[in-house]
Structures are given as C-alpha cells and as structure tokens.
C-alpha cells in the first residue's frame, strides 16, 4: 500500500496518460515516494468501472458524483476549497509539512494537529489537514510494516534527514512525538512511573513462560525488585499528596466570640454602598 493511494486513484482518473511512469513522476513532484507496480495496478483495477456517461467536471452530474464518492476521490476532483489549500499551505512548505506528517503518524487527529501546529505559529485549517491526510498521508490504510517499507524505499529524498524522527512518531506514539518536537514540556512523574510499571509487569509475565533456568530466576528477581521500587515511588507520591491535603484540613476560619462589633457600629455614618440617609427612609 502507499500513503497517497487515493491521490494515485485520482491521477488515474484525471490524467490523459496514466502510465506507471507518469503516475510516479506526479508523486515525486508532490514530494511522495514512487509507488510499486502492484499498488498502481490495484488502484487501476478499482477505477476501471467508470460510468459510461462519466462527466468528472460536471458537479451536477449525479451518476459521476456517486461514483467519485464511492471511490473516495470526490473532493479532489471537484477541487473544493480545502483541497485547493493543500499545495500552498502544506506541500509548498516542507518544514511545516514535516511537523504535520509526524503528528499524523503519531496518531493525532486533524483537529488536534491543527491545535498543535497553531502553537508553533503554523496555521492550517483542520479540514485541509484532513484532506491532506486522506490523499497524501493516509495513516488509516497503512500498517506499521507498510510504513517501514515506504520509508526504506523512499526515493523522493524529501525525508532522508528526518526518517528517524518519523520512526519515533510512528512507533512511540503521540506522547513521544510531542516531547521530541517541544510541543509538550510538562511531565507527570507518577504517570511515567506507572507506564514503566506496566511495561515491567508485561516483561515479567513473558519471562515466566521461559524454561526454568538460573537465568530465568535471575531475570524474575531483577524484575520483581524493579516493580517493588517503582511501586514504592508511586505510593510515596500518593502519601505526599495525602499529607498535603491533611495540612489543608487544619486551616479553619476562627470567629472571635468576644468583643464582636456590630456592623452598624463600624459604619455609623453609612457607606458608599448603603448610605445612612437611605436606611432612615
């Protein structure tokens, strides 16, 4: 599969010459890696059943619109306002494009990506991000192994320097991607410890399945110690919070019972909010 699979389908429909060479030239022109023959052939098969009265440039032609919608290429054929912004807002801005692609790879949705980009003074509508994801960087149709193959065989040279960062975003998820890009600065130490605890416990369960040996016993012992230490840290964090809450419980508003003056004695001549002459009326 190819992340620009639906863009490939569009090219097969829109170009008068839809040869493999022309398709790949267009992919490279848009900063994408070339597609393998079997991917182009698969797309070609899917768009082969074009309606007899096919009128792609007639927005009022119902059979064409229905077919384009079924092929999931309607908006790019019609060139709606969101698709038209892809070139100027994303493809023509390689640095912004890289940040956007990493965030999408990490699993963030278009609205969240839009918000994160805005914090970097990169302003792209979430609708345009959604269109770009669909036609050029479709994370929904790509598996991890397919992404690995895509980066390995990338002949566009666009990502040659930053492939490692793309890999981090793809495999480590949104937390790691946001931290790497400086979009998340505050860390919750308790959450971190709990994540490590889960990972160690999963490893502990996997180690238990190994055949009995001195190495297995040693590994289980080390893992048990690690889990115990992390649990102590987590519990210590909870205790510290409870101690703080108990301190707050000690604070009470003390009301002196003796020598309590009436408010009338404190403001015999009235105040700006409640004048004495009004009180007599």
How would you explain this protein's 3D organization?
- This protein has 281 residues and is mainly alpha-helical.
- Helix 1 packs across helix 3 (37-46), helix 6 packs across helix 9 (126-135) and helix 7 runs parallel beside helix 11 (163-172).
- It has helices at residues 5-14, 20-29, 37-46, 62-71, 74-78, 81-91, 94-105, 110-118, 126-135, 144-152, 163-172, 174-180, 189-208, 214-250, 263-266, 276-280.
- The chain contains 16 helices and no strands.
- The model is unreliable at 251-255 (pLDDT under 50).
- The chain folds into 2 domains: 5-180, no CATH class; 189-250.
- Helix content is 64%, strand content 0%.
What is this entry, summarized?
With 281 residues, the chain is mostly helical. The protein has helices spanning 5-14, 20-29, 37-46, 62-71, 74-78, 81-91, 94-105, 110-118, 126-135, 144-152, 163-172, 174-180, 189-208, 214-250, 263-266, 276-280. Residues 251-255 have low confidence and may be disordered.
Pick out its properties.
64% helix, elongated, mainly alpha, 281 residues
Q: Assign a percent range to the helix content.
A: 55-70%
Major beta sheet summary = none
Number of separate structural domains: 2
- Globular, elongated, flat, extended or rod-shaped: what is the shape? elongated
Instruction: Name the poorly predicted regions.
Output: 251-255
- Structural classification: mainly alpha
How far do the termini sit from each other? Answer: 86 Å
Task: Look at the structure and give the mean pLDDT.
Answer: 77
Proportion of residues in extended strands: under 5%
Query: Could you tell me the number of beta strands?
Result: 0
């Amino acid at each position: 599969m190819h992340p620009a699979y639906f863009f490939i389908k569009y090219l097969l429909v829109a170009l008068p010459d839809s040869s493999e060479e022309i398709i790949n030239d267009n992919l490279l022109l848009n900063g994408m890696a070339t597609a393998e023959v079997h991917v182009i052939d698969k797309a070609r098969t899917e768009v082969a059943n074009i309606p007899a009265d096919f009128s792609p440039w007639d927005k009022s032609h119902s059979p064409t619109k229905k077919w384009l919608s079924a092929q999931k290429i309607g908006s790019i054929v019609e060139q709606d306002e969101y698709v038209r912004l892809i070139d100027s807002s994303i493809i023509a801005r390689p640095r912004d494009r890289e940040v956007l692609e990493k965030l999408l790879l990490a699993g963030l949705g278009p609205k969240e990506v839009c918000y994160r980009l805005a914090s970097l003074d990169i302003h792209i509508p979430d609708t345009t991000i959604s269109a770009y994801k669909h036609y050029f960087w479709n994370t929904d149709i790509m598996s991890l192994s397919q992404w690995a193959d895509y980066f390995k065989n990338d002949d566009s040279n666009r990502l040659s320097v930053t492939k490692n960062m793309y890999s981090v975003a793809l495999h480590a998820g949104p937390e790691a991607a946001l931290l790497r890009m400086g979009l998340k600065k505050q860390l919750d130490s308790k959450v971190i410890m709990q994540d490590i605890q889960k990972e160690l416990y999963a490893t502990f369960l996997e180690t238990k399945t190994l055949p009995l040996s001195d190495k297995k016993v040693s590994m289980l012992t080390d893992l048990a110690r690690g889990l115990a230490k992390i649990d102590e840290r987590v519990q210590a964090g909870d205790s510290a919070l409870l101690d703080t809450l108990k301190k707050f419980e000690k604070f009470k508003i003390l009301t002196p019972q003796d020598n309590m003056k009436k408010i009338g004695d404190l403001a015999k001549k009235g105040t700006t909010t409640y004048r004495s002459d009004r009180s007599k009326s």
